[in-house]
Each structure stands twice: as C-alpha cells, then as structure tokens.
C-alpha cells in the first residue's frame, strides 16, 4: 500500500472527523435535526475540497469559491464551517451566485432542495467546467450532478457520479469514493 502524501493524510483525518460529526448528528434531538443536518452537509462540502482535485488555478488566482444556492440557514452553516479555512492553498469564500452563468466562477456549487426545480439550468451553466456540482434532491446524480446528499437512517450519506465529474475535469479521490453509498464509475452509464 502506497504511503499517503502529508496533505492526503491530513485529508483522511478530516474525513474520519466528519464521519464522527455525522454519527453525532444521528443522536441530535428531533427539533435540532435540520441544524445538525445542515452542519454535517456543510462539513462534507468543506472536506470535499480536500478529496477532489481541480485543474491548477492560474497564478494570482482568486479565493476558492464555495457557491451555495440554498436556504439561508444552510448558508449560515457553511459560513461557520469554512470560517478562516483554505482549500487548494487559497482562502475559502462562500458566495451566493445571482444567476446560473455567475456559477462558472465557483469551484463548488451546492444546490439545495429549494432549487430542485431549477437545478437543470444551474447544471447546464457549469457543465464541462471544473465546478463540483453537489445537490440534495432525488435523482440529482442521474441528471448530471456530481455528488448527491441524502439522509438514510438519520445519517447524511452521498452518492457520486464519477463519470460526470471526470468530464468536468475533476478527479475525485478513491478515499472519498470508498465512503460513498453508490458510485457511477468513470466510463459507466
């Protein structure tokens, strides 16, 4: 077994930590589930930045943009989780794009349940660009999304469409793929 690079080793440690958060969310009282669920999903989004490789940014690149089109409570969870953090050597910044074309400047685009009816427009705007598209609506990966959250037995889990992510120029690490429920592999249908 090959040794992990130090950055990947730290990322693996982060992966274990956010799985611990997912277990803690299961124990949360029912009235707090949505806040706990938002925090777990926000933590996953942050950690995805450590398990996905994007094409190298140009010199003097802007902040790493984690774009959120979702309920304000979820955006607040993301803000708490990424405060003071970096991704790919750049400061992390949460952005709320005002239109689908504006999402092309994102590295991660999260589409909440409230955007399920408009998800195809958002995905079409960034398709084949190096933007990791994450959602939480049924059939999201089948429609071209890269990662789809769902709750199963009070646990936040996710599926991965590796083929779609690969076409966008993104490389999802084997470590992340191992913890996904389902993976549509490269070249899969």
Structure description:
By secondary structure, the protein is an alpha/beta fold. The protein contains 6 helices and 10 strands. The chain has helices at residues 6-26, 33-51, 72-82, 119-126, 162-167, 174-179, and strands at 52-53, 64-69, 86-87, 90-95, 108-111, 132-135, 147-152, 155-161, 171-172, 183-184. It has an 8-stranded mixed beta sheet. Strand 3 and strand 4 (90-95) form a beta hairpin. Helix 1 (6-26) packs antiparallel against helix 2. Residues 11-33 have low confidence and may be disordered.
Fold topology:
Elements: H1 6-26, H2 33-51, E1 52-53, E2 64-69, H3 72-82, E3 86-87, E4 90-95, E5 108-111, H4 119-126, E6 132-135, E7 147-152, E8 155-161, H5 162-167, E9 171-172, H6 174-179, E10 183-184
Parallel strand pairs: 2-4, 2-5, 5-6, 6-7, 8-10
Antiparallel strand pairs: 1-9, 3-4, 7-8
Helix pairs in contact: 1-2, 2-3
